[in-house]
Write a structure and sequence with these properties.
The chain has ten helices and ten strands. With 289 residues, it is α+β, with helices and mostly antiparallel strands. A hairpin with a 7-residue loop joins strand 5 and strand 6. Keywords: DNA-binding, Transcription, Transcription regulation.
Length: 289
């Protein structure tokens, strides 16, 4: 699993430059030929192809069908964080990478659409999108130089890019109407922040509902209206996301990761991890390390 924000660069990649400012990383690099491996990154990644056309073979997450696509200059791939999938090519692609911290992207999505819809975004191969290309070039220009206010501008452009990608690629991005049963933006932010802060504990419907001033049943219905998911499904997804982050530590036992992410046992974590990620935690660790 690639981490574009890490100062330790992947040695097989030829880095022309890479710059990170808080939640935003921009890199220009040339990838080596790839006979076929699982690839992904810990960030939401927009990769714009800048070089000669090449054929990319891939299997989208959760699918067995091998597909191929001619990737031409200006085309882009988009992939949410912690979602590796099979990719292969013979050439050495020259790419511009925009990598956005997953939590930053989630906060932007919640502010714009009143729900975290980053996980709903599919993996996209070979898209043509002039607006996203403009945002990527703006970030490339801004991040290449150290100028006053650069961090503020870079995060503003990245927020706009995130909103655009969600609008373009997520299946449903119309904000819910809290008048028709959803949580207010303030209630939703409170609940999502509490889930993130207490993901290792026993998150109860009663405790979360109390913070919104709603009854348990009303809260459950409003949460699903706002997020498109049941509370249980959302919490499980967040536990698995936290587990993916902890699996980057090769010395942390799987049982300890299970308890640190609020699962009752390692087998409980394994069952949900396999269902959502498509591989066991051990297999995922071998991919990212």
């Amino acid at each position: 699993m690639l981490d574009f924000a890490s100062p330790k660069r992947e040695p097989t990649i030829r880095w022309n430059y890479a710059a990170t400012r808080n939640a935003v990383t921009v890199a220009r690099c040339i990838l080596p030929p790839n006979p076929g491996v699982l690839l992904g990154a810990s960030q939401l990644v927009l990769a714009v192809h800048m070089g000669e056309p090449f054929v990319m073979e891939y299997r989208l997450p959760g699918e067995d069908r091998l597909q191929s696509h001619l990737i031409e200059p200006g085309m882009m791939n988009v992939n949410p964080g912690n979602r590796p999938f099979f990719q292969a090519w013979e050439n050495s692609p020259d790419i511009l990478v925009i990598a956005l911290d997953s939590r930053f992207a989630e906060r932007v999505a919640v502010a714009a659409f009143e729900r975290d819809c980053i996980n709903d975004m599919p993996s996209i191969i070979g898209a043509k999108d002039n607006a996203a290309l403009c945002f990527a070039r703006l970030l490339d220009t801004e991040m290449a130089f150290e100028r006053r206010g650069g961090t503020v501008i870079s995060e503003a452009i990245s927020a706009a890019l995130t909103v655009h990608l969600v609008r373009r690629f997520c299946p449903e991005t119309r904000p819910p109407l809290h008048g028709s049963g959803g949580l207010t933006p303030r209630q939703l932010r409170h609940v999502l922040d509490r889930i993130e802060d207490e993901i290792d504990g026993n998150l109860t419907t009663r405790a979360l509902a109390f913070g919104t001033g709603l009854s348990g049943g009303h809260f459950m219905r409003a949460f699903k209206t706002s997020t498109g998911k049941t509370l249980h499904a959302y919490v499980i997804e967040q536990r698995i996301r936290r587990a993916q982050m902890l699996l980057a530590d090769p010395d942390m036992p799987l049982a300890q990761i299970a308890y640190a992410t609020g699962f009752s046992s390692q087998s409980h974590m394994n069952r949900h991890f396999g269902r959502l990620v498509g591989m066991t935690p051990g297999q995922f660790r071998r991919v990212i390390l």
